[in-house]
Please model this.
Amino acid sequence: MERPLTKHISFRRPSLALEEYERTGGYAAVRKALKQLTPEDIQQQVLASTLKGRGGAGFSTGTKWGLIPMGADAPHPKYLIANADEMEPGTFKDRLLLEGNPHQLIEGMILSAYAIQADIAYIFLRWAYRKAAVLLQQSIEEAYGAGYLGKHILGGSWSLEMHLHTGVGRYMCGEETALLNALEGKRATPRAKPPFPQLSGLFGKPTIVNNVETLCCIPHIVNNGADWFKSLSRCAEGGTKLYGVSGKVNHPGCWELPMGTTIRELLHHAGGMKNGHRLKGLLPGGASTDFLTEQHLDTPLDYTSVAAAGSRLGTGTIIVLDDATCPVGFVHNLQHFFAQESCGWCTPCREGLPWVEKTLLSIERGEATPEDIELLRMHTHMLGPGHTFCALAPGAMEPLQSALHYFMDDFERHLTEKKCPYANHLHR
Amino acid sequence: MLSDAEITAINHEISLVPHKKAAVIEALKVILQHRHWVSDECVESVAELLEMSPAEVDSVASFYNLIFRKPVGRHVIHLCDSISCYVMGYEELYQALQQMLDIRFGETDTDGRFTLLPNCCLGCCDHAPALMIDEDLYQDVKPGQLKRMLKKYS
Ligand SMILES: Cc1cc2nc3c(=O)[nH]c(=O)nc-3n(C[C@H](O)[C@H](O)[C@H](O)COP(=O)(O)O)c2cc1C
Ligand code: SF4
Ligand code: FES
Model:
């Protein structure tokens, strides 16, 4: 089984410096692209590879790039941005790529920037990734030194500047239009679309924002071709995927596996449930995805299949809910996060999420009435898709609505017993 | 009043962006590096340098979790309170820290050594529960390890 993205990642030694990276075939794709391929060739290859964005929404990368203005009349500077804000609770896959092989991301960014003829590239990195910040800064400098960045790359006519930007902490910085505002020195509130960032993005110029894992796929597609990339997968969505598992399993971790690996296989990689614990449910791809349960274990983890099962692949990092953890407490923790991170731009989300959080807390404490459950149900509609300015609030409602569906007995026991039936949690 | 070093650093940030306003977050980061928090006076000085109103600067400063508008201790403990750490028992760490330092989230201990803050997922959920002290990451933390861990920070 091929693992192109993580093949050269090992935490028993430091990540690869430039020369070691080159020795493993690194920057060959940049040399090939700049000497033999036009930007349009790469765009075509990426479109044909069926690569879907790994930031959560699963939008076709080739299609996204296809909307950027090209040619002599295109406005400049154009921007390429790597979204390395990774703050979705339960998600720890981009960290692996950033700390494990920073040159791979930089190479992917150079190729992507070449494909859209960008002039300036940013890595938007969350503050907490200190080790990644140091490694990326070193690697960017090495790449400048070797002539892969800067003016007239490899002696050609195309130039690219690359900067590392570290954020100051806010989940919304990961939403791509809010990220643009943050980079411009503003509050991280989202922008109205249209205009889409491809036409009017950073400082009003054409901009592409891609997730770290998405960009790390690009060197391998350029080196090996679209058909090879498709062959890595077990389904119609090409490539491998970085999957993760956290919670009460024997070996929590992150693995690169073929796209379409089933939940059952992934849990097997995680060594199964910890002794004495049973699987009650799981979020397949971070905090803003719907719960799945035991009946879904054979669902392939690709965008289409997980959607058909009633959830979303999201970031591909599973959070396990075990039978000793209270589902109401679990969902309360998630809603606390969303309420806190709501940017306050639109009223339903700003006012609704704290209400949801408080209602869940009163249920958890055994102080709620059946009307409170109805209130939660109402919110899952009122904060659902189409009612708020961005996807934060609808994302927040996904685990809530599915918890109300799958774990209703637990909610009811809190009402009838007037306390949390799970003994082991301390409540703030 | 800002120091010369702060002003030089902020002017450098201004030189990197298309217009002055766009440097406001970087300017606030410069202040944080030098003073660990941003006072009202600093907000005004930054506003003057960037030709913004103090309210505009503060609207940005107050938005971000890590731009501290109140004084903090010499070290900041960022305890992850997100979902995987919840499942793996961050609340026990919180309880232990409360007992050891006699502070709750958002507070600073009496000798000004530690400020305790909750933090969103630190991106190491496979090693939950996790916390950061300043820039140091600690993973798979057990309550019994906290005492020795804190000793390193004076
Ligand atoms: C509230 C919110 C937070 C997000 N956070 C991230 C993030 O941390 N990293 C990321 O890559 N995408 C994040 N996204 C998705 C981005 O908006 C965007 O879709 C993505 O960066 C596009 O890259 P891709 O096409 O390569 O997936 C977030 C979206 C929302 C609504
Ligand atoms: S849904 Fe929430 S996070 Fe998104 S714009 Fe509205 S208030 Fe902000
Ligand atoms: S939930 Fe604590 S590190 Fe991710």
Notes: The interface with chain A takes residues 16-18, 21-26, 28-29, 59-60, 63-67, 78, 81-84, 86-88, 91-92, 94-95, 119-128, 132, 135, 137 of chain B (CB under 8 Å). The beta strands of chain B are 75-80, 114-119, 131-133, 136-138. Chain B has two domains: 4-63, 75-151.
